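Researcher: Batch entry, complex prediction.
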Amino acid sequence: MSHMKFVDLEKKLISVARANPPSDRVPLAFEKRIMAIIMGRPVQDIWAAWAKALWYAAAPCVAIMLLFSGWALVQSYKNNQTPTVDLAQQLDNTLLAAVDQSNDSTR
Amino acid sequence: MERTEAELIAAVLKGDAASFEPLIEKYSPRVFATARRYARRDSEVEDIVQEVWLKAYQKLKSFRGEAPFEHWLMRLAVRTCYDFLRSHQRNRESAFSDLSEPEDDWLERFIHQPGAAREDSDAARQLVQRVLQHLSPPARLVITLLEIEDRSVKEISKLTGWSVPLVKVRAFRARAEMRKILGKIAKDKYL
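Model: Structure tokens for the complex:
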């Protein structure tokens, strides 16, 4: 087929498409169907959405906390410390800091 | 008394969802005709139109009333149709050797006697659909809007959100793509 024929065929097909516009028929009660979907949608509750977002955020937060805890433990091992004793000692000191202070002041 | 479009839109924005129904009734024929240019099956057409209306309802706040509601809606419709074409891209492949007998006859008639190939025949319509289906989504959109609907480049730019130079580039590529497809038909049929 020659180039001219291609151009002619292209023009012919375009004119066929122009001569046959698609139907604008709307299915019966289509607007009712759309309205039913719109009306059936729950009204967005901002507080519920906020609570949902917080709930979704909880898991990543726990994951990050565990990651940093693990990292802290590894670091303390690397420093040749015994982490359990060290951490326990530090926890004791922190909890009993108030008692130690009051003992010091009574002396 | 019948309410104006602006009044209906204002009522919907105030929370009266029922006021949206007259807008659906009025503009659905246009949206259906647009969707039928890009999808063939009734179920697909209905899905597209449904999506257009749901988007229109959700995004109604963004309608500023500077242009007619119809223009805003048609922009939404064209973009939804384009999304549909892109999501159904893989359905494009089928060999042209699968042309039906009437399509083959129509082509044969066109080659030997172009005037005798009627434009209103079913075969011609099917052949157009087949060619359009083989175009890439941007090419199909631009050929439909520019060549078939006879819209200007500026109008297409507004409808699609593409810049004017991009529309021109895509139109050029679309025509090349179409010729390539027609060449493929000729090759499958005559070589």
